[in-house]
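Open question from group meeting: does this chain pack into something compact, or does most of it stay loose? Before anyone orders reagents, we agreed to write out a predicted structure and look at it together. Recording both the input and the output here so the notebook holds the full record.
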Amino acid sequence: MKKTLALPLFLQTLGLVIVTLVVAQTLSVLVILNLPPPPPLVYTVAEVVQAVRFAGQAPPEEGVHVLTTRVSARPPTGETEGRRRVHFGDAVAAALAVDRNSVVVTQRGPRIVALGGPRAAPQQRELLRDAPEPLLMGSFEIGIRQADHKWLIVGPKTTFGIDPWQERLLLVVALSILAVSPVAWLFSRRIAAPIAALAAGAERLGRDPRAPHLEIVGSAEVAAAAGAFNEMQERLRRYVEERVGMLGAIAHDLRTPLTRLKFRVEGAPEPLRDKLITDIDQMEAMVASVLGFVRDAAQTRDYCKLEVSSLVETVMDEAALTGADAAVEQADRVVVDGDPLALKRLFVNLVDNALKFGSRARARVLAEGDMAIIEVDDDGPGMPENEIERVFEPFHRVETSRSRETGGIGLGLSVARAVARGHGGDVVLRNRSTGGLRARVSLPRARPA
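Structure tokens returned:
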């Protein structure tokens, strides 16, 4: 048993989040600091005049920027002060040959219009200073009063696309995610691996109480859970071994008094003697079955990959050699991880039941998703619905089977279900609509290596 101390799961998760955020933000800042600033978006007087003249019509192809126009009963609202805004309004009024009081220039957002303004970036100040005509930047609206006293509003067109500088920022985000993903994947795998191992150990324990103990690795919480799991498995193993050993000892000790009874009934009257001997023989058969069950339970399972159809065909061929009506109707090639001897005993029990109570046995092997399905049909009278589950109880037999010729001990189906569930599957019985009984075995298919 390996034991490794580790940080609590809370601290590991917190560390994963912090490391991921720090790495992503560091990469983003480094890339952004090395990128050139986005070029300013400027509008000229000629573009505004062109938008006004072509209001309501398709703009000419030579336009640099797209401006939209709309008609409003009121002038645009916003900041109108500023020397450059006044100059821009003067230039628009002169170009359109309208009264200056009929032109209103408003600005929204940062004041980046003023030449050399305190908020203007160096690149913007240089552009405004060297421009041969007034320019506007950012979000603005220009209102021109019409003859009907309504206002024609001109402004930049709102687009849903992204600008080149925004594309660069998105690229930075994508690169940060790409760079951080391996780190996050390694951390997440380190955190999740012990939990997955704990789940796999629980699944192994369901199949075999003698499965190897879990390695106590991972966070403090997972290590504590693995330690408690190992202790539970050890107690469960001792409990099962004690009960199986007790059952085997009782069955073994019963053989001696049964043998003595057999000698003592020799002097009994013949009709009574035959009945007593029959009862004693049945008891000896029950004892032998219990001892066989105990031996099987005490054996260490030798799991390997095997093809179920080949095993079923072998069982059916052996039954057919004795003169029984047994055959395989469908045999898909399905591989499972299992103990060949235990699985063979499972199929032998089902085929024997089909031949005893149904006179014939027909088997099919098929794959359904991640399960291997084995069906064994007979042509017998079927079974009452209230008995279908009870027959899996040890030593329980349906009333019609209590005869010397066909009656079994009552452990066959119990052993079959125990073997199937020990392999992670199950055995169920169903009455067929056409008559007879169907035993359906489901086993997990082998996982690829």
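Observations to bring back to the group:
DSSP finds ten helices and 13 strands in the chain.
The chain has a mean pLDDT of 77.
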